[in-house]
Amino acid sequence: MKRLDRILISAGCFALLLISWIIAVNLKSPAEKQIEFMRQAAELVSDGVYIRAVPLLEEAAGYDTEYTLAVEAELKRVYLALIDKPGFGRRYIGLLERQMSRRDAHPDFFIEAANYYLGLSRISEALATLRIGIERTGSAEVTAFYEDNRYAYDMNRTAFEYVSAIYGSTVQVRADGLWGIARSDGVELIPCEYEKLSTFSGDRAIALKDGEIYAIDENNNRLALLHENAADFGNLSSDRVPLLIDGAWVRATGEFALGSAVFEQIGMYSDGYAAARVNGRWGVVGLELDWLVPAEYDGIVMDELGRCCGQGAVFVRQDGIVRLIVGGRFIGEAFDDARPFSGEGFAAVMRNGRWGFIDIDGSVVIDFVFDDALSFGQHLAAVRIGELWGYVGIQGQIAIEPVFLDAKSFSNGSAPVLTQRGWQFISLIEFKRRASL
Questions:
Q1: Which domains does the chain have, with CATH numbers?
Q2: Does an H or E element contain 259, and which?
């Protein structure tokens, strides 16, 4: 009986002690509880016993006090120490997502998460995280980090003998001396079997094969046949294609309905206008034969497709210099050469053998430091530095290192570049990811 009494008394004392401990713990403030959990976890971490520190730190992170961020920082450090163990990568990014979702989230959280994704080569997720960080914080640091990483790209393995500039979402490509059409990322749509092929516009391209000129659709079906005897044709856009008939250029629709106007030369329509020469002088003519720029100049600056007009601006050549015309007026200074404006961004211009960039107001926005350049497309411009080509961003910073033998402008997230294998296509990972959403 005495032994049983002693057991009961001991159990009672233990219960009292346990109750006292529970009461003491519960009487502690959240901050005191966090500090105690942190102290216990710190002893384990110092011994390298990370796995046992995790529940203590997770418990501490459940409180909201002035120490919470410090607790979370230590918890992330422990998660990273265990990152190779199953589930800890998910825990780490889950904690970061909780931090980033707070109204007062610090910009560093977004950069930390992006760095984690970049370390795993999950570039799309890194860029998506940074875009959210820019939207929520407006941080210059997050924006700069995004700009430093947003131009990662993949390269298509297919190589061609030659490619044109991208027009919209397609591009003319040549293999074994014959032409076809590919998507802007280099995936072939129409096989290379034509002696000549125009740009693909609307639902068709104009093709030459076995002496016949006809229109084809994206499935390589014949849509219309030209019955007139044409010696040549230009690129199709705005349902207009130039045809060389009896030594003069006329315009025709994609169904080969011929217009009555005759030109000595005519380029490709862009923004509703095309460069045209009459009586030995060049101007810029509209679809309805209205002249945006009267035919009184030595030349009009065109790109390789024959386009001259972008953002309502045109460069004209006169007496060995190039001038910008916007709204019928000369804008800015004269240059030695230029590339036409595209639908957005800055135009490349040359002064004293070096290339820089101007905006639509004629102001120099990127200095004359390049050996060659093309105008901007999708916030990037191809530039040559020495013998190699790369791309600059709108601040003039190198966005894609100059490692290519030649390069063309970006469109639809991709650009043709010349490598040792031939012409290949690079596609921005960010653009591909966003286009798939």
A1: 29-153 (1.25.40.10), 154-436 (2.130.10.10)
A2: strand 258-263
Does the pLDDT at position 258 exceed 90?
yes
Half-sphere exposure of 233 (CA within 13 A, CB side): 30
- For the chain, first and last CA: distance in Å? 78
Answer whether 164's CB lies under 8 Å from 304's CB: yes
3-state secondary structure of 11: helix
Q: What is the dihedral of CA 336, 263, 305, 223, to 10 degrees?
A: 170
Length of the chain in terms of residues written: 437
Mean pLDDT, residues 145-169: 93
d(CA 146, CA 78): 27
pLDDT of residue 378: 85
User: For 159-169, how does the pLDDT look when each residue is reduced to its tens digit (9 = 90+)?
Assistant: 999 999 999 99
Cβ atoms < 10 Å from Cβ of 297: 21
Q: Is the pLDDT of residue 77 over 80?
A: yes
Strand ranges in 130-271 using DSSP code E only, listed in sequence order: 153-155, 162-163, 170-175, 178-183, 188-194, 196-197, 205-209, 212-216, 222-225, 232-233, 241-245, 248-252, 258-263, 265-266
Number of H helices, E strands in the chain: 9, 32
Q: Which has the closest alpha carbon to 345: 392, 301, 307, 305?
A: 392
Contacting residues for 167 by C-beta, under 8 A, at least 6 apart:
199, 200, 201, 235, 237, 305, 411
How far is 127 from 307, CA to CA, in rounded Å?
34
Sheet holding 241-245, edge to edge: 232-233, 241-245, 248-252, 258-263
C-alpha 91/C-alpha 130 separation (Å) is 20
Cα–Cα distances in angstroms (integers) from residue 86 to residues 89, 256, 370, 414, in the given order: 8, 65, 50, 38
Question: Dihedrals φ, ψ of 340, to 5°?
Answer: -60, 150
Q: Is 181 helix (H, G, I), strand (E, B) or coil?
A: strand
The answer to whether the CB of 392 falls within 8 A of the CB of 409 is no
pLDDT tens, position by position, 79-118: 999 999 999 999 999 999 999 999 999 999 999 999 999 9
Sheet of 422-428: strands edge to edge?
153-155, 422-428, 414-419, 406-407
In 3D space, the residue among 320, 313, 328, 429 whose CA is nearest the CA of residue 375 turns out to be 313
- Please give the structure tokens belonging to residue 132: 């959210």
Q: Record the tokens describing residue 34, joined without a space.
A: 């966090």
Whole-number percent of the chain with pLDDT over 90: 86
Cβ(201)–Cβ(340) under 8 Å?
no
> How far is Cα 133 from Cα 116, in angstroms, rounded to an integer?
15
